[in-house]
Amino acid sequence: MFNALPAQVVIQEVPGEISLLFSITGCDVGCKGCHSTELWNEAYGEPLTEERYKAYLNQYSGFVSCILFFGGEWQPKQLCEYLVLAKKMGFKTCLYTGREQIEQTIRAQLDFLKTGEFNYQLGGLDSPDTNQKFYDLAQNKITNYKFIRD
Protein backbone atom coordinates (compact mmCIF):
# COMPACT_ATOMS: atom_id res chain seq x y z
CA MET A 1 0.00 0.00 0.00
CA PHE A 2 1.26 3.45 -0.92
CA ASN A 3 1.30 6.32 1.51
CA ALA A 4 1.18 9.71 -0.16
CA LEU A 5 0.85 13.41 0.48
CA PRO A 6 -2.37 15.08 -0.68
CA ALA A 7 -2.44 15.30 -4.49
CA GLN A 8 -1.46 18.63 -6.07
CA VAL A 9 -2.01 20.18 -9.48
CA VAL A 10 1.36 21.24 -10.94
CA ILE A 11 2.32 22.89 -14.23
CA GLN A 12 6.13 22.92 -14.45
CA GLU A 13 7.14 19.29 -13.86
CA VAL A 14 5.97 17.91 -17.24
CA PRO A 15 6.37 20.48 -20.02
CA GLY A 16 3.18 21.09 -21.96
CA GLU A 17 1.02 19.22 -19.46
CA ILE A 18 -1.10 20.11 -16.45
CA SER A 19 -0.33 17.30 -14.04
CA LEU A 20 -1.90 15.80 -10.95
CA LEU A 21 1.04 15.00 -8.67
CA PHE A 22 1.12 12.13 -6.20
CA SER A 23 4.14 12.30 -3.86
CA ILE A 24 4.68 8.75 -2.62
CA THR A 25 6.47 8.25 0.69
CA GLY A 26 9.17 5.68 1.38
CA CYS A 27 11.92 6.90 -0.96
CA ASP A 28 15.19 5.14 -0.19
CA VAL A 29 17.45 7.05 -2.59
CA GLY A 30 18.22 9.84 -0.07
CA CYS A 31 19.64 12.49 -2.40
CA LYS A 32 21.78 15.05 -0.58
CA GLY A 33 19.95 18.38 -0.85
CA CYS A 34 16.57 16.71 -1.45
CA HIS A 35 13.74 19.28 -1.35
CA SER A 36 11.29 16.70 0.02
CA THR A 37 13.03 14.74 2.78
CA GLU A 38 9.63 14.03 4.37
CA LEU A 39 9.11 11.58 1.50
CA TRP A 40 11.87 9.36 2.89
CA ASN A 41 9.59 8.24 5.75
CA GLU A 42 7.24 5.54 4.43
CA ALA A 43 4.82 6.12 7.31
CA TYR A 44 4.39 9.80 6.40
CA GLY A 45 1.23 10.83 4.57
CA GLU A 46 -2.00 8.91 4.20
CA PRO A 47 -2.79 5.62 2.43
CA LEU A 48 -3.45 6.13 -1.27
CA THR A 49 -6.07 3.44 -1.62
CA GLU A 50 -7.40 2.46 -5.02
CA GLU A 51 -10.74 4.06 -4.16
CA ARG A 52 -9.09 7.33 -3.16
CA TYR A 53 -6.88 7.28 -6.25
CA LYS A 54 -9.86 6.67 -8.57
CA ALA A 55 -11.75 9.49 -6.87
CA TYR A 56 -8.86 11.87 -7.66
CA LEU A 57 -8.77 10.70 -11.29
CA ASN A 58 -12.52 11.22 -11.66
CA GLN A 59 -12.40 14.61 -9.94
CA TYR A 60 -9.62 15.93 -12.19
CA SER A 61 -10.67 14.27 -15.47
CA GLY A 62 -10.96 16.96 -18.13
CA PHE A 63 -8.84 19.38 -16.11
CA VAL A 64 -5.40 17.73 -15.92
CA SER A 65 -3.75 15.89 -18.78
CA CYS A 66 -1.07 13.91 -16.95
CA ILE A 67 -0.76 11.83 -13.79
CA LEU A 68 2.65 12.33 -12.18
CA PHE A 69 4.23 10.22 -9.47
CA PHE A 70 7.15 11.42 -7.40
CA GLY A 71 8.45 7.97 -6.48
CA GLY A 72 6.62 4.73 -5.92
CA GLU A 73 8.89 2.59 -8.10
CA TRP A 74 9.92 0.64 -4.99
CA GLN A 75 6.41 -0.86 -5.13
CA PRO A 76 6.32 -1.73 -8.85
CA LYS A 77 3.13 -3.81 -8.84
CA GLN A 78 1.01 -1.09 -7.24
CA LEU A 79 2.60 1.69 -9.30
CA CYS A 80 1.92 -0.22 -12.53
CA GLU A 81 -1.70 -0.81 -11.52
CA TYR A 82 -2.18 2.91 -10.85
CA LEU A 83 -0.47 3.91 -14.10
CA VAL A 84 -2.68 1.49 -16.06
CA LEU A 85 -5.80 2.99 -14.45
CA ALA A 86 -4.68 6.48 -15.42
CA LYS A 87 -3.96 5.48 -19.02
CA LYS A 88 -7.33 3.72 -19.32
CA MET A 89 -8.96 7.02 -18.33
CA GLY A 90 -7.04 8.88 -21.04
CA PHE A 91 -4.32 10.52 -18.96
CA LYS A 92 -0.65 10.68 -19.90
CA THR A 93 1.68 9.35 -17.21
CA CYS A 94 5.01 10.41 -15.72
CA LEU A 95 7.39 9.20 -13.01
CA TYR A 96 10.09 11.20 -11.26
CA THR A 97 12.73 8.90 -9.79
CA GLY A 98 16.18 9.41 -8.30
CA ARG A 99 17.27 6.10 -9.76
CA GLU A 100 19.05 5.73 -13.09
CA GLN A 101 16.96 2.72 -14.17
CA ILE A 102 13.46 1.44 -13.44
CA GLU A 103 11.73 -1.83 -14.14
CA GLN A 104 10.59 -2.29 -17.74
CA THR A 105 7.07 -3.09 -16.54
CA ILE A 106 6.84 0.44 -15.10
CA ARG A 107 8.53 2.11 -18.05
CA ALA A 108 6.03 0.50 -20.44
CA GLN A 109 3.20 2.41 -18.71
CA LEU A 110 4.87 5.83 -18.91
CA ASP A 111 4.78 8.69 -21.39
CA PHE A 112 7.46 10.67 -19.53
CA LEU A 113 10.26 9.73 -17.12
CA LYS A 114 12.72 11.79 -15.05
CA THR A 115 15.76 9.85 -13.82
CA GLY A 116 18.81 10.61 -11.72
CA GLU A 117 19.64 11.63 -8.19
CA PHE A 118 19.55 15.30 -7.38
CA ASN A 119 23.12 16.63 -7.21
CA TYR A 120 23.25 20.11 -5.69
CA GLN A 121 26.49 21.00 -7.51
CA LEU A 122 25.03 20.05 -10.90
CA GLY A 123 21.54 21.40 -10.30
CA GLY A 124 18.12 20.14 -11.33
CA LEU A 125 16.44 19.87 -14.70
CA ASP A 126 16.66 23.64 -15.19
CA SER A 127 20.48 23.44 -15.21
CA PRO A 128 22.42 22.69 -18.41
CA ASP A 129 24.94 20.81 -16.22
CA THR A 130 22.45 18.48 -14.50
CA ASN A 131 23.00 14.75 -14.29
CA GLN A 132 19.22 14.24 -14.36
CA LYS A 133 17.40 13.30 -17.56
CA PHE A 134 13.81 13.96 -18.59
CA TYR A 135 12.60 11.54 -21.26
CA ASP A 136 9.69 11.90 -23.63
CA LEU A 137 9.25 8.17 -24.08
CA ALA A 138 6.78 8.46 -26.98
CA GLN A 139 9.45 10.32 -28.96
CA ASN A 140 12.27 8.26 -27.41
CA LYS A 141 14.34 11.33 -26.65
CA ILE A 142 15.71 13.38 -23.78
CA THR A 143 13.93 16.74 -23.51
CA ASN A 144 15.84 18.55 -20.75
CA TYR A 145 16.03 21.62 -22.99
CA LYS A 146 12.36 22.29 -22.22
CA PHE A 147 13.29 23.15 -18.61
CA ILE A 148 16.13 25.57 -19.36
CA ARG A 149 15.24 29.24 -19.56
CA ASP A 150 17.19 31.59 -21.78
Question: How would you characterize this protein structure?
Answer:
The chain has helices spanning 50-60, 76-88, 104-107; strands spanning 3-4, 8-10, 19-23, 46-47, 66-70, 92-96, 112-115, 133-136, 141-142. By secondary structure, the protein is of the alpha/beta class. It has one domain: Aldolase class I (TIM Barrel, Alpha-Beta Barrel), CATH 3.20.20. Helix 2 links the parallel strand 5 and strand 6. The longest helix is centred in the middle third of the chain and has 13 residues, at 76-88. The mean pLDDT is 94.
Identify the strand order in the major beta sheet: 2-3-5-6-7-8-9
* Number of continuous helical runs: 3
Q: DSSP strand (E) fraction? A: 15-25%
Overall number of structural domains: 1
CATH architecture, by name, is Alpha-Beta Barrel
- What CATH calls the topology is TIM Barrel
Radius of gyration: 15 Å
Q: Which stretches are low in confidence, meaning pLDDT under 50 for 5 or more residues running?
A: none
Question: How would you spell out the order of helices and strands?
Answer: EEEEHEHEHEEE
Give the C-level CATH assignment.
Answer: Alpha Beta
Shape: globular
State mean pLDDT (0 to 100 scale): 94
Distance between the termini: 42 Å
* DSSP summary, beta strand count: 9
Major sheet description: 7 strands, mixed
